[in-house]
């Protein structure tokens, strides 16, 4: 298997996020406020739980949930792994490892976590990898555990690339997403609908405790976004661009 490379930068997210609002209060705050406070609520309700984050990137979610423990963060991209390892890994309470959930499971098949988080990862991988990650969430989750999975949302499911919003067939997207070394049109972005996201998590043996959405397009930007994504303003004005689900193992 080729080494995985994440072909995007978190620096660009700060500017991009100015297009969105939380719809909480006056809308000038963090568009992810509802999601991040949900993560804090889950962590506060399970202070003794072990936390697994699959695809921890630069470690921002671990910082939000840092009062639980022990914590394991998995990151396959070498550069991003090095950054989060340098700032978070202590080799005891917090472990940051350069691997995917599937390779971690091979080494630790019996390990279970009270909290498992997959934050903004499953839209950037082939659909088969998405299914495998969600199956890993199920398998790693303790019987009384909670998982939080967050991803993209649009009014309909679409398969796109970051630098080219042409709608792709799923097989075309999968081939592109599977070759991270040659992604010349930016990172692959699967735009889930609410229905396709919930179908994917349920198919993995997870049941939904709560679903939420966050990062709404600001009213003055709706027309531009609708054109950009190949939709209509009326179809997207009340559909936030991201969604999350709190999950547990289905009975
Ligand atoms: C958009 S970033 C999100 C990072 C972090 N979870 C957050 O919310 O800030 C997506 C991350 O998923 C990682 N990733 C990609 N494929 C993965 C896989 N198969 N397993 C785990 N992580 C993966 C990428 O390297 C990248 O760091």
Please tell me about this protein's structure.
The chain is of the alpha/beta class. The protein has a single domain, classed as Rossmann fold (3-Layer(aba) Sandwich), CATH 3.40.50.150. 34% of the residues lie in helices and 24% in strands. The N and C termini lie far apart (35 Å). S-adenosylmethionine (SAM) binds next to helix 3 and helix 6. The site of S-adenosylmethionine (SAM) has 22 residues, from helix 3 and helix 6.
Name the descriptors.
24% strand, 251 residues, binds S-adenosylmethionine, seven-stranded mixed sheet, globular, two-stranded antiparallel ribbon, Rossmann fold, alpha/beta
The percent range for strand residues is 15-25%
The 3D shape can be described as globular
CATH superfamily: Vaccinia Virus protein VP39
Largest beta-sheet characterization: 7 strands, mixed
Average pLDDT, all residues: 95
Query: Any ligands, ions or cofactors bound here, and which?
Result: S-adenosylmethionine
The tally of structural domains comes to 1
The unreliable regions are none
Total strands: the figure is 11
- Main CATH class: Alpha Beta
Determine the CATH topology. Rossmann fold
Percent helix: 25-40%
Number of helices: 10
Task: Please give the alpha-carbon distance between the first and last residues.
Answer: 35 Å
Give the second-level CATH assignment, the architecture. 3-Layer(aba) Sandwich
**Alpha-beta content class:** alpha/beta
Layout of helices and strands, plus pairs?
Elements: H1 11-16, E1 20-21, H2 33-45, E2 51-54, H3 60-64, E3 71-74, H4 78-88, E4 94-97, H5 101-107, E5 113-119, H6 127-140, E6 141-152, E7 158-161, H7 170-177, E8 188-191, H8 194-203, E9 206-214, E10 216-217, H9 222-229, H10 233-236, E11 242-249
Parallel strand pairs: 2-3, 2-5, 3-4, 5-6
Antiparallel strand pairs: 1-10, 6-11, 7-8, 9-11
The protein binds S-adenosylmethionine.
């Amino acid at each position: 298997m080729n080494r995985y490379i994440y072909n995007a930068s978190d620096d660009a997210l700060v500017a991009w996020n100015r297009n969105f609002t939380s719809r909480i209060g006056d809308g000038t705050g963090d568009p992810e406020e509802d999601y991040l406070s949900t993560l804090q609520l889950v962590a506060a309700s399970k202070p003794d739980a072990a936390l697994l984050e699959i695809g921890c990137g630069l470690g921002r979610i671990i910082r939000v949930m840092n009062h639980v423990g022990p914590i394991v963060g998995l990151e396959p991209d070498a550069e991003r792994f090095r950054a989060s390892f340098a700032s978070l890994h202590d080799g005891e309470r917090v472990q940051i490892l350069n691997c995917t959930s599937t390779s971690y499971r091979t080494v630790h098949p019996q390990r279970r976590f009270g909290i498992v988080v997959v934050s903004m990862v499953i839209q950037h991988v082939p659909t088969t990898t998405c299914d495998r990650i969600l199956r890993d969430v199920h398998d790693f989750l303790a019987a009384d555990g909670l998982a939080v999975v967050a991803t993209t949302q649009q009014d309909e499911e679409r398969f796109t690339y970051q630098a080219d919003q042409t709608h792709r067939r799923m097989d075309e997207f999968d081939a592109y997403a599977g070759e991270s070394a040659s992604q010349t049109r930016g990172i692959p972005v699967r735009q889930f609908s609410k229905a396709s996201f919930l179908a994917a998590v349920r198919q993995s043996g997870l049941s939904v405790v709560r679903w939420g959405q966050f990062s709404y397009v600001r009213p003055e930007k709706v027309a531009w976004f609708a054109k950009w994504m190949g939709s209509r303003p009326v179809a997207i004005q009340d559909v936030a661009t991201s969604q999350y689900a709190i999950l547990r193992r289905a009975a």
